[in-house]
């Protein structure tokens, strides 16, 4: 490739070094993995095969290039080892090195390319809400672990029992404890392939017990995760909303306790530009506060622009709940949504807010006469 | 068909254009889909076959007719494109056009009629609580999505691993990554058909890990949905109840904060006419407020009618918890149910309410002496 | 049988007519069903077979007899039709009539006796917490139903799709939509027998989607039930505890609001006579109030009896949390358990209670010097 | 073995008699069970086989020895029968006696050694959070039991129905109710081996219903456990935190009600020595109180040590949420974590705390100028 092209590419990648994933990378991952997958199907004719390998090499090239640029970029900012130890740094390295290393080590090409499946790891840092999931797993690790231990104990006890009961009847499938272990795992997870199945009456009773404990393990597992998740969601939502709320002048007036209150009631919503938030004539059961960005209310005859700190849709909460006008975002905006439910409560607890909203509502009503 | 009949039918359908689904439509959907299903079973004799096709044509005719009438009806109200873009509009269109279009395009008749399965879509707009489900899915989409991504990553990594480990031993089943992918999905969802099963020790260890992550994915999924659902239910119930509560004079007296309180405690219940609400002699643990409609208390000797705003069953909450009389709805009624639990709390928080109920109770006791 | 025996038996049964199930009935059900089950296994020799039938006849006789006596008993109390329409009345009738009717109708004996499996229905009225489960199902029926509808729609759409995709490749398994429906249910419930499995690439993709929606259906289902159950448990526990609390003089002093508070914190516990509640030297994290019955504190040298309204184990919550003495129930007792957690909160909210408990604790400490 | 070695060993074991499990025991369990498992695989050559048995004997010897020492140790403390009846005492006994007894009773050696799988029971007392799980199961036993009963009823009714419908078509699989029972359990748990599958239309409809009830049972089960678990977690966390909180001088000032409040907001965290708690430059959303141990704040130029009762990381909650310095534990420490969420609420409810923290924060800011 010609120098300028490369440097241009380098600039582009460097520019994106901050973000976890570039669109380009996503495409490369998808293309790469799919190609690799198809390659393993017997190629109908040579050409297809060659095309595929070409694609794979291209993806690999992209990842290696991206990695190198990022390394240079980070080095230039003295954040090199920080990056190399970060999850995104590691997956970049793996994506770039796995296949080449395998090839260098003389692994047969067809096999080496299988490693390109590791490219999927590149999406990990980009997964939304992954942090949240991890926190739940960490906080609940104690009980989850004990469930796992119980799971393993049941597996071992059950498989030895089955081995003892079935080995003489069907030596080919229950001929050793390891095969019985395989059966136990397949059964306790209620997967039930049916490749190994007890046939003796006693063996079947043991199996039945294992299946029922399977449900139990499931239940515990889910129960634990559900509990942890509920707590985490509340926490996460609060954090996301807090900053925003305190920025909205409308709430700034309130004391910290009231703000904590309010924060528990609001939900943040990030919208791209030109998105319709409210459709005229639709049923409304929430109002909106503009934390950042700008929206446009499409009133008969004129268009009214509302900026940071303003609110709209309050009519829906003040008796008449059919939306009176279309409202659309003008630029990327962050809104705070207040549900009718919480609105009622809020109004009850903070009458002053109620008045402000009421007054504003009246003013608008007059204005739009 | 004769003109009058058609126009009559048209009127009927137009009248129902507002509602999502008419009984007739439900019947047509059921008949149509069942007939189509049976048609695919080798017909025992010609006659049956002919009857079936006749039925299918009839259903189709009904849907087309319904659709046309609705279109005209909507057009007459300038709500045409709104309707055509609404979910119910779309399913009406699909129900009416799918099969004919297929036939016109020259698809073999037997196959074309399979499209009549799309008629089941017509029930979607009529599903109760669907809105609620959708809201949960939307609000929790973030975490749900990340679980899905994790799911896919596990599927890909596992299937490549298995392909690598099993391809030589059982080339017919693990001969390519796509087949391995099939195995991975079947296993991770703990479906476990058993058509593709790893046999090598390493392959089985990988499989065991996949199954266990299967439980994990399940757990996360459920945990997320359970959390979202809990929140949604609370919200939904509040909205449904709020309007009603504020209409009951008995509560109207209370301030907004108290109303919010009360609303959280009440449960709305819609009953058809002539339904027995309370059976004499039964155990009672809740009282009722009449939001709309009318009920009849069947006292010894006389029948007392209670209308909007009245309450009954309070005796059960004031010490004597055996129902003293049968209570039946006279017309379609909406009741607000107050559980003993919440009654206690309510009374504690709003002694004034307690007195009102007490007084009324006493009055009635005397009266019914 | 001799007259006196019969009448004695009659008395016994009549005496138990109130209760849902007598021990005898449980035994009869167990014996009957097990015998019936074993009878279907080819009998090794005649004798066994005869013995079995004898047993079955005996069980049947018991159920018929029980039913007749109950009928007479209820008739004598003018509660006949109430009983006959009650769940327990219905299952009694079924238990008594199913088999005889079948035999009379000339059903082949071996088959007729299969109906004795209906005897298991007799345990229904005796299931603990069944009321609770039913309430959850009723209250959440809305969302549960919509999940079911979605389930069915997926089943229908998927099966027609699979039928279309697989019918030519494997006509014997996917030869008609009904067989495809069978596949769809087996798959969507993640049961996965493996008797019907798609083989075409497209068919497998559809199947994968079905499996994943399977997880979704699961998740929704569980989420809904979990939510409903949480609410129900709280409610149920409150109801069970409320009555008891208000009976304990110690709490009677409190106002209704405080009682509501307390009730939310206590847990009822019913114990048989001579049960050890507290073991000396064990770690303690809760205290007990005696709602009814009597307990015995086994102090060095003397035994102290505590009756209704008294409390014990409070030391554990006042600093020293090693139990100081064995405590055993003297007769059947109902205790209210107060956890350390809630104790702290309670003390904070109702300092007067704190003092009472403190004082009593001190008094005892001195006394036991 | 030479006397001194034995006595040394004895001392070691006795020393560990208090703890549930020693590392050595864990190793022995792992080695023993794995060896036993492998032994059942046909041994490639004699040597391996001999080595394995040697290992097993060694493990057994260890367990017997450990048990004897513990017995002596406990006897010396008059806690013998207490120990022998405790769960850990029982598993020790089983671990030591099972295999020998079997061998003595003349069970064929290969089979006798299978009992060494019981060694896995030795880990039970060591499982973290097992107490918690057990409490949940106990508290929710009522509903769980009723779900189980329902499960069994469905199993019985379904299997008899299937037996009746399928026995003539496939006598080899549905030839008796017991085999039908096997099918029912496999199906209701959604395991679905596929070894026994209904083929008649009616049989399949029954099966479909069973599968769907399977989902229901799952859902109920999980719902119950999730509910119980949520309650238990809250309780557990409170107990763990309470003691600690009341020890922190910073909170001691507060009244009991405030402490109860605070306790609900804090999370205990136990850390080994030399662990980095806060990394400079990271995002912070919580502050820490030192309940016990000591931490080191690594400020530019100097290192500041903070001891019991001190707090740090508060800056993150006072506006600037980028961590300003590394903080590491010096010795094993127990910290109380206060999330931003709860911090806000706490500050709102207890302004005095807010001031203390603010003041301290300012002081430090100046100091570190």
Automatic annotation (TrEMBL), chains A, B, C, D:
Q: Which residues cross the membrane?
A: 21-41, 47-68, 80-105, 111-130, 142-165, 205-231
InterPro entries reported for this sequence: cNMP-bd_CS (IPR018488), cNMP-bd_dom (IPR000595), cNMP-bd_dom_sf (IPR018490), Ion_trans_dom (IPR005821), RmlC-like_jellyroll (IPR014710), VG_K_chnl (IPR028325)
Q: Which UniProt keywords apply?
A: Ion channel, Ion transport, Membrane, Potassium, Potassium channel, Potassium transport, Transmembrane, Transmembrane helix, Transport
One family from Pfam that matches here is cNMP_binding
**Can you give the residue ranges of the Cyclic nucleotide-binding domain?**
250-364
State the protein's name.
Cyclic nucleotide-binding protein
Please state the span of the N-terminal signal peptide per the UniProt entry: none
Keyword Transport found:
yes
State its location(s). Membrane
User: What's its membrane topology?
Assistant: Multi-pass membrane protein
Say yes or no: keyword Ribonucleoprotein present.
no
SMART domains, A to Z: cNMP (SM00100)
* PANTHER family assigned to the protein according to its UniProt record, in alphabetical order: POTASSIUM VOLTAGE-GATED CHANNEL PROTEIN SHAB, VOLTAGE-GATED POTASSIUM CHANNEL
